[in-house]
């Protein structure tokens, strides 16, 4: 009984270390998103940290259009980054979970 508990505790610690390493690796995965006409480009990490914003000079003439482009493009980039982030962490979490019937459906 105690061997099982100790084994599970070891597996939990190993999974926690893998999650931490995965989060660090997600800082190196870059997500690029462009506006539909290519006048705005956003780059962020899979941890959803903005790395760069490139704005075409023509957008600087229209404040409202620039604001709209920023909102739309940032939201699309964040959505993509979140999908990558969640998929990567779910894979690590699933790998570290004990085989409990019915639990596998939580990580799909």
From TrEMBL:
Q: Where in the cell is it found?
A: Cytoplasm, Nucleoid
Q: Which GO terms describe its molecular function?
A: DNA binding
The record, for Pfam families, names:
YbaB_DNA_bd (PF02575)
Q: Which Gene3D superfamilies match?
A: Nucleoid-associated protein YbaB-like domain
Q: Which UniProt keywords apply?
A: Cytoplasm, DNA-binding
Q: What is its main location?
A: cytoplasm
Which GO CC annotations does the UniProt entry carry? bacterial nucleoid; cytoplasm
Assembly, in brief, is: Homodimer.
**What family does the entry list?**
Belongs to the YbaB/EbfC family.
This molecule's function is given as: Binds to DNA and alters its conformation. May be involved in regulation of gene expression, nucleoid organization and DNA protection.
What is the protein's name according to its record? Nucleoid-associated protein FVB32_15005
State the organism named in the record: Flagellimonas hymeniacidonis
What broad taxonomic lineage does this protein's source fall under? Bacteria, Pseudomonadati, Bacteroidota, Flavobacteriia, Flavobacteriales
């Amino acid at each position: 009984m105690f061997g099982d508990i100790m084994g599970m505790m070891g597996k939990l610690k190993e999974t926690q270390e893998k999650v931490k390493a995965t989060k660090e690796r997600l800082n190196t995965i870059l997500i690029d998103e462009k506006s539909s006409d290519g006048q705005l480009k956003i780059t962020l990490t899979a941890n959803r940290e903005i790395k760069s914003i490139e704005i075409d000079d023509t957008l600087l003439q229209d404040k409202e259009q620039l604001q709209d482009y920023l909102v739309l493009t940032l939201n699309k980039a964040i959505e993509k980054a979140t999908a990558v982030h969640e998929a990567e962490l779910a894979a690590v979490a699933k790998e570290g979970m004990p085989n409990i019937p019915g639990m596998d459906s939580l990580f799909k």
